[in-house]
Design goal:
Pathway: Aminoacyl-tRNA biosynthesis; selenocysteinyl-tRNA(Sec) biosynthesis; selenocysteinyl-tRNA(Sec) from L-seryl-tRNA(Sec) (bacterial route): step 1/1
Helix content: 40-55%
CATH superfamily of the largest domain: Type I PLP-dependent aspartate aminotransferase-like (Major domain)
Shape: elongated
CATH topology of the largest domain: Aspartate Aminotransferase, domain 2
Largest sheet: 7 strands, mixed
Pfam families: SelA
Low-confidence stretches: none
Number of helices: 19
Mean pLDDT: 90
GO molecular function: L-seryl-tRNA(Sec) selenium transferase activity
Subcellular location: Cytoplasm
Number of domains: 3
CATH class of the largest domain: Alpha Beta
Strand content: 15-25%
Structural class: alpha/beta
Organism: Evansella cellulosilytica (strain ATCC 21833 / DSM 2522 / FERM P-1141 / JCM 9156 / N-4) (Bacillus cellulosilyticus)
Strand order of the largest sheet: 4-12-11-10-9-5-8
CATH architecture of the largest domain: 3-Layer(aba) Sandwich
Radius of gyration: 28 Å
Distance between the termini: 34 Å
Length: about 475
């Protein structure tokens, strides 16, 4: 047993190789050394279990095998865990892939703001401390017709914040049909319990009437909460009460009861005017609700944020609450959100990727798919064909809305669909696809014209070496 073990090289011997020296230019030596240790340890264990396989293996053989392992590891190495990917799924607001892409205008503002000092909490005119709330409040007032506004780090935080600050130890009435659960097991009932607001459920799963709310109101009632069910649809024998109906109920009681509508995805753009879904617009919700919250990185098309708009006295109370500091957003989020809202204000919504991709015509999608396929067929051992299908908005919005789309089905005599999908996903720039009829399908709704060349390079590189896919 001694002889084979002695043939294992020391780490410093591997570090002297040309392979190690070359890789160390791009990969931290700490990581390279850990790979060497892992390879040496695996070799040692294998020798102990399979000594007969190593009788004639020399130290040079071991070094070559270890350097081959280093090269293999380096092919999958990235200095960053957060990587750019190409979204070939067709899902515009893909939660796992970061939801909304920022517009070029928003990206430039983030870069400029993060690279310099800024007026984050400084009033240039007065020469004294200012408030970060003021940075985007005026913009939000203009685009939503609200009296006041503020921003926290996401909409889940906004829901908790509103309930905690306004309704602790008080009753909040919610329809049973609106006690939703979204991604990550976030439930309205659970967050209400955490906020110490007292949940009062009314109605049934499919039907809630005005009299259900009226009968439930007591002297302890502080809020009637309406939750927009943006991630599912209840169809058939249904009934719900609008925020307008809730407002009428509170006016009849002569009690100071807040009407709060959580829009979830929230939209400033009227997609229904283009025949896409029936998502409520924030302006409309504010006509009857006292306070409204919604996400920044869904249909708005901006950065992750929880946007709160509504009556001035309510928003001012939130701003003064201790949680306002706990949940506040940073300068980069504010920069991106400010730039995005400016685009709404100036009628430049189609420059926002989310709006553009949802409204994109099937002919425009087809044109990109055809450009890709023409170039793929010129120099690749994997073929493809155009196929029609449907894309989804995603991100828990418009769950039943299908967008007609086109994509490319990749086919090969040598590679299985699972092999192609895995290798595309594991490339230098990961390409995330979906399956259609047992084949890899790339949906071009979510691929820009600028990304086509990168996508071509990724596919050709993956398919250029058959052995790598075995």
């Amino acid at each position: 047993m001694t002889q084979p073990i002695r043939s294992i090289p020391a780490m410093h011997e591997v570090q002297k190789t040309d392979v190690y020296k070359k890789l160390s230019n791009d990969i931290p030596t700490l990581i390279l050394n850990n790979w060497i240790k892992a390879s040496i340890e695996n070799t040692r264990k294998d020798i102990l279990n399979n000594r007969e396989n190593y009788e004639d293996v020399s130290r040079i053989d071991h070094i070559r095998k270890i350097t081959e392992y280093l090269i293999k590891q380096s092919n999958h190495f990235s200095p960053f865990r957060l990587q750019k990917v190409i979204n070939g799924t067709g899902t515009v607001l893909h939660t796992n892939l970061g939801r909304a892409r920022l517009s070029e205008t928003a990206m430039k503002r983030v870069v400029e703001t993060s690279a310099n000092y800024s007026t984050l909490e400084y009033d240039v005119e007065k020469g004294e401390r200012g408030s970060r709330h003021d940075i985007i409040q005026d913009l939000l007032l203009k685009v939503t017709n609200s009296e006041a506004a503020m921003v926290v780090n996401n909409n889940s935080a906004a829901v908790y914040f509103i309930l905690k600050a306004l309704c602790q130890d008080k009753e909040v009435i919610v329809s049973r049909g609106e006690l939703v659960e979204i991604g990550g097991s976030f439930r309205v009932s659970t967050i209400m319990e955490e906020s110490r607001a007292k949940l009062v459920e009314v109605g049934t799963t499919n039907k809630t009437h005005e009299f259900d709310y009226k009968n439930a109101i007591t002297d302890e009632t502080k809020m009637l909460m309406k939750v927009h069910t943006s991630n599912f649809k209840t169809v058939g024998f249904t009934k719900e009460v609008s925020s307008k109906g809730l407002k009428k109920i509170t006016q009849q009681t002569n009690k100071e009861i807040i009407i709060y509508e959580d829009l979830g995805s929230g939209s400033l753009y009227p997609f229904q005017h283009n025949g896409i879904g029936d998502e409520p617009v924030v302006k409309e919700a504010l006509k009857h609700a006292d306070v409204v919250s919604f996400s920044g990185d869904k249909l708005l098309g901006g950065p992750q944020a929880g946007i709160i708009v509504g009556k001035k006295d309510i928003i001012n109370k939130l701003k003064k609450h201790p949680l306002a500091r706990v949940l506040r957003v940073d300068k980069m989020t504010l920069a991106a959100l400010e730039a995005t809202l400016q685009q709404y204000l100036f009628g430049q919504e189609l420059q926002i990727p989310t709006i553009r991709d949802v409204l994109q015509s099937k002919d425009d999608v087809l044109s990109k798919a055809m450009t890709f396929l023409e170039n793929l067929n010129q120099n690749s051992n994997v073929g493809g064909e155009i196929a029609s299908d449907f894309s989804y908005v995603g991100g828990g919005t418009m769950p039943t809305e299908k967008l007609q789309t086109y994509g490319v089905i990749l086919k090969s005599e040598h590679y299985s669909a699972n092999q192609l999908e895995k290798k595309l996903r594991g490339g230098e720039t990961p390409v995330i696809t979906r399956m259609k009829d047992g084949h890899v399908f790339i949906d071009f709704r979510t691929i820009t014209t600028e990304e086509i060349d990168v996508l071509l390079e990724s596919v050709k590189k993956v398919c250029s070496n058959r052995d790598k896919l075995q």
